[in-house]
Specification:
The protein is mostly beta strands. It has helices at about 15-20, 35-45, 165-175, and strands at about 5-10, 30, 50-55, 60-70, 80-85, 85-90, 95-100, 105-115, 120-125, 130-135, 145-150, 180-190, 190-200. A hairpin with a 2-residue loop joins strand 5 and strand 6 (about 85-90).
């Protein structure tokens, strides 16, 4: 069973950055990961039934992740651009969303997006949820490789605050029989991209 380990440690941030985060969080952890290295590892294992990796954060969180690609697109999904010369079908991008579980416990849920320039999602361990996002979502001058991890109780309530991952999960939970389709058009200049998504 091929498995790779990724080690990281908590990082200090500048006082101005701490003050900014204090507006939104009562507690948090900051660390860095090599997104492209992790993305390369999981992409190379697409053909495997399951993807195994270890993530050690500051020797406090020692997580054994079991993942599988979780394509959010419906069967037959196509990305089509309508131009003055007609419709052009685009090549589909590789799946970058994953689902799985933690430490061989299927009740400890993992949902992650893994790309060359980003990792985000959430991990549930023993009933405790840990959100993971890029720090630059909250601090514009943060390094791209920096991540922030926090729990729901750490969030200082604001009407404007929301977590995209949870919003997606809530939408999925509201879909009857887990097979409801949505259609939308995304306009960019004279081009229109038709998108059909099934949330499962």
């Amino acid at each position: 069973m091929a498995q790779q380990s990724f080690q990281t440690y908590y990082e200090s941030i500048e006082t101005t950055q701490e003050n900014k985060l204090a507006e939104s969080f009562s507690s948090y952890k900051v660390f860095s990961l090599d997104f492209s290295q992790i993305n390369k590892y999981v992409k190379e294992r697409y053909a495997d039934n399951l993807i195994f990796l270890n993530l050690n954060i500051n020797n406090v969180y020692e997580w054994q992740l079991t993942l599988e690609p979780n394509d959010m697109r419906s069967i037959g999904y196509k990305s089509v651009i309508t131009t003055d010369n007609g419709e052009i079908e685009q090549k589909l991008q590789a799946v970058n969303t994953y689902k799985g579980f933690l430490n061989s416990n299927e009740n400890d849920i993992v949902r992650l997006t893994i790309e060359d320039n980003n990792i985000n999602g959430y991990i549930i361990e023993n009933g405790e949820m840990h959100y993971i996002e890029q720090l630059k979502n909250f601090i514009s001058d943060a390094r791209p490789s920096q991540l922030i991890m926090y729990s729901p109780d750490d969030v200082i309530k604001k009407e404007s605050f929301s977590c995209g991952v949870i919003e997606i999960e809530n939408q999925k939970n509201n879909i009857n029989n887990n097979l409801s389709k949505q259609s939308t058009s995304l306009c960019a200049g004279d081009s229109v991209i038709q998108v059909e998504i099934v949330l499962i």
